[in-house]
Amino acid sequence: MKKISILALFIGIIQLCFSQTNWKNDIDTLKYELPKRHKNLFFLMSELEFDKGLEDIKSKCDSLSDFEIAIKLQQLIAKSGDSHTRLDWYPMLNPELNLPIGMYLFTDGVYILKTSEEYPDLIGKKVININGHPVEEVIDSLNTLITCENEALKKEFFPQIITSAQLLDYFKFSSDSTYYFEVEDENGNLINQKIIPSAIGKQFISIQKDSLPYCWKERRTAFTKKYFEEDKILYITYNSCIPVSYIQDNGNTDTLLFEDFQKQIFSDLKHENVEKLIFDMRFNGGGNSIYGTRFINKLSGKKIDKKGRIFVVIGRSTFSSAILNTLDFKNETNAITVGEETGGKPNHYGEIRSFNLPYSNLNVIYSTKYFKNTEEETNTIVPDIKIETSFQDFKRGIDPVYEWVKKQNIE
Q1: Bridge partner residues of 356 (DSSP)
Q2: Handedness of CA 46, 319, 297, 352 (dihedral sign)
Q3: How far is residue 352 from each of residues 49, 106, 366, 369, 406, measured CA to CA in Å?
Q4: Helical H runs in 314-370?
Q5: Rg for the chain (alpha carbons), in Å?
Q6: For residue 15, what pLDDT is reported?
Q7: 382: alpha, beta or left, given left = phi > 0 and alpha = psi -120 to 50?
C-alpha cells in the first residue's frame, strides 16, 4: 500500500509540474498573440504593465490552481479598457458549484428574483450581505473581471456571476465553502439563510410572469409589440438585433422575420390611433445593427416622427449594435431617450475574433476594429430623461418609464 501511495504522489507531482509548465506556455502565447492581433491593445494599459502582469502571474503558477490562473489572466486583460476583449474563463466554472438563486440591482437594492425550489421564501428579499461581507463589497470585487467602462456595465455584469461558489471562494467571501446570505424582508426583518451549491440546470421558481411590467414579461423575446389602445401607445420591445424572433403564443412557438415585423409596425401606425411609440432597447445586448438602422431610416420623417411622440428606452444592458441603433434614433428622428445610462460606449472597439490558448484551450476574444460613431468622447449614452426602476415598482407590475411616457403631452 505504501509503494502505491508513493507512486501516486510521484505521478501527481509530475502532472502538477506539467500543468504549471503548460500554463506558462499559454501565458507566453497570450503575451505574443493578443497585442499582435488586437486593433490597439495598449490604448489605455501600457505594454509594460501588461507584460509585468503576465510575468507576475507566471511566477505564481506553482501555487495557483487552473481556475485561479484563468481568473488572474482575465483580471489583467480587463484593465485594457476594451470591454469586447476578454479571456473566456467560463469553461473553468464547475456547474455543480453554483448557488441556485438569481438577483438584480434595483434603485433600492439587490433583490432575489428567482431560486430553486429549496429556497422559495428568498424570492423578493433584499440581499444585505454574503457571509458577513456587504453585498456592495462583493460586487466591487466581482467587477474586476470586466472592463468597467461605466457604472451601468457594473450593474449589468455582477448578477451573472455572483452565484458562483468558486468566485466567492476566490475572492475570500466564503468560509470553509459555506454560503450564508443575510436578506431583509419588506418589514425590515433580517433572515440568515444557508445556501448549498447545486447544478446550474436545476429547476427555478420566480416571481409570477403575469405580475411583471410588460417589458419584463417580454425580456426573453428578440422582438415583439403590443398596442395599448387605452393609452394610444404602440410598444415595441427590441431585445436583440437579429433577423428572426420566436414568439410564444398559448404554448405554441411562431417565427417572425424582422422584415415582416417592420411591415406590421407601419401597418399599425397607419390603421391604429397611435399617438406615441415606445421603442424599448433596455435589454438589448446587440447583434447586427442593420435591421434597426433600416427600420429607423423608414420611420424618419413619418407622421409619428415629432417631438414628444417617439420614445427610445435604453439601459444598462444596451450594448454594441443597440448602441448604434440608439445613435440612429438620435441622429435621424426626433426621439426622446428615456431610462438608464447604457452599458455600451458610443465609440468603442469591436468586430471580434478569437484564438485558443494551446494548453488550456481557453478562448481569447479580441477586437479588430475601432468604431467612432460620435465626435463626443463619452463612456456611455446618458438618456434625455433618466428614469430608474425600484423593486417596489417592479413587484407591483409598474414600469416607471411607461408611466412617464403616458403622462407626456403631445406637442
Answers
A1: 363
A2: positive
A3: 23, 31, 5, 8, 40
A4: 321-332
A5: 24
A6: 46
A7: beta
What's the rounded Cα separation, in Å, for the pair 91 and 264? 41
Q: Does 11 score more than 70 pLDDT?
A: no
CA distance 275 to 308: 9
Under 8 Å CB-to-CB from 327, ≥6 apart: which residues?
346, 373, 374, 381
- Answering whether pTM is above 0.85, one says yes
Q: Which H helix or E strand runs over 167?
A: helix 165-170
Query: Cell 465626435, residue?
Result: 375
**Local structure of 397: helix, strand or coil:** coil
CA–CA distance from 102 to each of 114, 116, 161, 215, 330 (Å)? 5, 9, 10, 18, 34
3-class secondary-structure state, position 403: helix
3-state secondary structure of 329: helix
Mean pLDDT across the stretch 151-156?
92
Q: Which residues contact 288 (CB under 8 A, 6 or more apart)?
A: 241, 242, 243, 321
Helix (H) or strand (E) holding 135: helix 135-142
Measured CA distances, 158 to 144, 185, 233, 361 (Å) = 10, 22, 34, 25
Total residues found in the chain within this entry = 411
- Residue 335 near residue 310, CB atoms below 8 Å: yes
Residue 6 confidence (pLDDT): 55
Residues 6+ apart with CB under 8 A from 53: 76, 79
Domains and CATH numbers, the chain: 2-90 (no CATH), 101-206 (2.30.42.10), 209-345+380-407 (3.90.226.10)
Say how far residue 174 (Cα) sits from the centre of its chain. Answer: 24
Q: Residue 165 is placed in which grid cell?
A: 461558489
Tell me the average pLDDT of the chain. 92
Do 330 and 373 contact (CB within 8 A), yes or no? no
Strands (E), 141-275: 180-184, 190-194, 204-206, 223-228, 233-238, 244-249, 252-257
Tell the residue number behind the cell numbers 448602441, with chain if given.
323
- Average of pLDDT values for 50-60? 97
Closest among 165, 182, 169 to 130, alpha carbons compared: 182
Contact residues for 114 (Cβ-Cβ < 8 A; gap 6+):
101, 102, 123, 204, 205, 206, 207
The string of pLDDT tens digits covering residues 86-101 is 999 999 999 899 999 9
User: How many other CB atoms sit within 10 Å of the CB of residue 208?
Assistant: 9
Place of cell 431610462: 339
Report phi then psi at 25, rounded to 5: -65, -40
Neighbours of 210 (CB within 10 A): 7
